[in-house]
């Protein structure tokens, strides 16, 4: 599968080492719509290709938005891209968040660090539905305040829904919670009958988050999480992203906890 | 064994070239067993002289040797380090090339010319292996187009096994020794005190067209009885063991034993060398490599076989998900025998025994299965 050529329409820096690219198809041709939670394969010329989740609004496909942290050679090459520069794009791939299951439910979104990026399209989707603000609870944890994604947007969201944040390390001026994001959950009130939870972040954080939710009697069928593994093809052929019986690229990256709980608590799978 | 309803014919052994030539005339490049570096591998065949006539392979865990036979059999061996997957899922191929232009970048596919190949001497376990790779690359939402085109253009001449190597366990995996999946032509080599011939039967229209061109005579029931006896002999060889086991419950067995300390025991012997995955006819994992030339203006993407035994295979930022040999061997064996069922509705093992013979330390997957079965507490 050959990548389509896209160009960088806009580039913003979230914080040092993490940036967001707004990309459009060459000649502004129409782009495929996507489901919140899906991802694209981004190709930096000659350097390589990496899976990066969709972070933009699903209903506006005139531009794809990707938030990327520089961790390897390919993401370094992507970081060097400036407005007007071109890159290759394959996608969108994978199973996303089950937005159809959110109707009438209280939404709990738990994000750790960069894990907010794949959840943002879901948040946009929910906000576009004119939902009652009290129905959406976002718990967001980051290393420190400067390393919070979408800081301006967070302020906006705080007006429209219930947002609770926490940092691992307080920097000067931080007056909020300090500690793992899961500590916010211990005091949260959750109606197990009528709640659906979406989680994305480091695996260890997701483990503790799920533990808290299960303690509050939320059924496994009401918990969804997004997984990450090495990916090369994104089409289920290269074998790299296997996780037990699943291929993260085509069976995920979003899974219902009920389907995978046996594998989730095993290590080195 | 499946019912043999198609009419059988006899081709004298000294007329084997007529089959090879008919395939060549039909536009196929014939590939089959040849001796290279003291092993029987698959390569281009010009005539029957290229075949390993009069040779057999002696195999055991961590051991493979060629040995002279007492007769002049053409297919008197089992399987070597190659499988047909090297012609269907190429070990290394270029996928695309990219260029920097005044306008930005452009990416174009690399479509290699595909020569129709005739596979001469496909064993039943190997037909099953091809069928398994078909499920990987041709079922589901995305197809591997390169594989699809190569796969569609092949002609298969399958050979019934009349002997089994010590490492063979196809009867335990229900894939042989008799040809039990469709092929274009099916042959059985028969050698008696005073005769040497092939029984032939077509399995497709393509096969029928080739068969019609050959100097064959109808087979008698005596010939067919000889064929049956010969194939039974291979089955008998395998039935006396030691590589006989019950494969019906392997998925549940390995799921139950995911944390069994036996994995650590295997890891103490396993070198994580990836040989088993390279010789396996169903292992399909690949990786890609992106390169540029010195100018930096031209880039290429190459796809090549990869193995779950390498550290890079499961690497994500921060390290490898499977950091040690224990987790990698567990992934390989659990995938092959258990999770493969969930993914593709079939086992990933066909019982060819290659991973046993080509393991440098002689780890034997059948022996490990039996050890798990013995230590299992359902």
Explain this structure.
The complex is a heterodimer of chains A (269) and B (378). Chain A is of the alpha/beta class. Chain A folds into two domains: 4-93, Elongation Factor Tu (Ef-tu), domain 3, CATH 2.40.30.10; 99-226, 3-Layer(aba) Sandwich (Rossmann fold), CATH 3.40.50. Helix content of chain A is 23%, strand content 32%. In chain A, a hairpin with a 2-residue loop joins strand 13 and strand 14. Chain A is globular and about 50 Å long. Chain B is an alpha+beta fold and 378 residues long. In chain B, helix 9 (262-269) crosses helix 11 (325-344). Chain B is globular. The mean pLDDT of chain B is 96. Chains A and B meet through strand 6 of A and strand 6, strand 7, strand 13, strand 15 and helix 11 of B. Chain A: Its cofactor is [2Fe-2S] cluster.
Short account of what is shown:
With 269 residues, chain A is an alpha/beta fold. Chain A has seven helices and 15 strands.
- Strand arrangement within the widest β-sheet of chain A reads 10-9-8-7-11-12-15
Q: Structurally, how many domains make up the residues of chain A? A: 2
**Helix content estimate of chain A:** 10-25%
Order of helices and strands of chain A, N to C?
Answer: EEEEEHEEHEHEEHEHEEEHEH
Query: What is the CATH T-level topology of the largest domain in chain A?
Result: Rossmann fold
Structural class of chain B: alpha+beta
Largest sheet of chain A: 7 strands, mixed
**Biggest chain pair contact, residues each?**
A-B, 37 and 47 residues
Give the helix tally of chain A.
7
Low-confidence parts of chain A, pLDDT < 50 over ≥5 residues? none
The best one-word shape of chain A is globular
* Poorly predicted tracts of residues of chain B: none
Mean pLDDT of chain A: 95
Helix content range of chain B: 25-40%
């Amino acid at each position: 599968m050959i990548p389509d050529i896209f160009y960088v329409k806009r580039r913003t820096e979230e914080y040092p080492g993490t940036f967001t690219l707004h990309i459009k198809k060459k000649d502004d041709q129409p782009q495929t719509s996507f489901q919140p939670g899906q991802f694209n394969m981004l190709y930096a010329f000659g350097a390589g290709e990496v899976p990066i989740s969709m972070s933009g609004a699903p209903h506006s496909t005139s531009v794809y938005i990707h938030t990327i942290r520089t961790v390897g050679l390919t993401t370094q090459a992507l970081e060097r891209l400036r407005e007007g520069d071109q890159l290759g794009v394959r996608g969108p791939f994978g199973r996303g968040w089950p937005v159809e299951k959110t109707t009438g439910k209280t939404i709990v979104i738990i994000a750790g660090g960069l894990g907010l990026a794949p959840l943002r399209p879901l948040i946009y989707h929910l906000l576009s539905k004119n939902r009652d603000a009290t129905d959406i609870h976002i718990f967001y944890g980051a290393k420190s305040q400067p390393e919070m994604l979408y800081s301006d947007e967070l302020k906006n969201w705080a007006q429209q829904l219930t947002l609770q944040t926490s940092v691992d390390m307080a920097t000067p001026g931080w007056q909020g919670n300090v500690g793992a994001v899961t500590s916010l959950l211990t005091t949260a009130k959750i109606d197990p009958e009528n709640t659906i939870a979406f989680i994305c972040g480091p695996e260890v954080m997701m483990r503790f988050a799920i533990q808290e939710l299960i303690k509050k009697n939320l059924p496994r069928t009401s918990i969804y999480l997004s997984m990450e593994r090495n990916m090369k093809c994104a089409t289920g052929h290269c074998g790299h992203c296997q996780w037990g019986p699943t291929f993260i690229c085509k069976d995920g990256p979003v899974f219902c906890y009920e389907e995978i709980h046996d594998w989730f608590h095993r290590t080195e799978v | 064994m499946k019912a043999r309803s198609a009419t059988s014919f006899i081709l004298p052994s000294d007329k084997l070239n007529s089959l090879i030539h008919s395939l060549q005339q039909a536009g196929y490049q014939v590939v089959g067993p040849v001796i290279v570096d003291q092993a029987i591998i698959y390569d281009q065949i010009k005539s029957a002289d290229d075949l390993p006539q009069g040779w057999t392979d002696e195999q055991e865990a961590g051991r493979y040797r060629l040995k002279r036979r007492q007769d002049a059999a053409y297919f008197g061996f089992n399987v070597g380090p190659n499988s047909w997957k090297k012609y269907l899922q190429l070990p290394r191929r270029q996928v695309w090339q990219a260029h920097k232009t005044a306008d930005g970048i452009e990416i174009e596919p690399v479509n290699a010319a595909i020569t129709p190949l005739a596979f001469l001497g496909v064993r039943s376990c190997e037909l099953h292996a091809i069928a398994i790779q078909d499920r990987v690359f041709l079922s589901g939402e995305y197809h591997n187009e390169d594989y699809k085109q190569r796969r569609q253009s092949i002609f298969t001449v399958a050979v019934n096994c009349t002997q089994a190597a010590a490492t063979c366990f196809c009867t335990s995996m229900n894939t042989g020794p008799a040809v039990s999946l469709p092929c274009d032509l099916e042959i059985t080599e028969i050698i008696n005190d005073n005769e040497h011939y092939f029984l032939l039967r077509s399995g497709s229209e393509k096969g029928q067209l080739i068969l019609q061109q050959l100097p064959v005579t109808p087979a008698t029931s005596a010939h067919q009885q000889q064929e049956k006896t010969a194939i039974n002999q291979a089955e008998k060889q395998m039935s006396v063991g030691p590589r006989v086991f019950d494969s019906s419950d392997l998925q549940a067995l390995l799921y139950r034993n995911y944390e069994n300390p036996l994995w650590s025991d295997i890891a103490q012997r396993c070198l994580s060398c990836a040989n088993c995955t390279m010789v396996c006819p169903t292992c399909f994992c690949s990786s890609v490599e992106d390169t540029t030339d010195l100018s930096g203006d031209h880039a290429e993407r190459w796809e090549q076989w990869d193995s779950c035994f390498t550290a890079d295979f499961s690497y994500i930022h921060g390290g490898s998900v499977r950091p040690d040999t224990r987790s990698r061997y567990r992934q390989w064996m659990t995938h092959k025998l258990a999770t493969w069922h969930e993914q593709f509705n079939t086992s990933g093992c066909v019982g060819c025994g290659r991973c046993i013979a080509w393991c440098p330390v002689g780890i034997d997957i059948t022996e490990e299965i039996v050890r798990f079965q013995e230590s299992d507490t359902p």
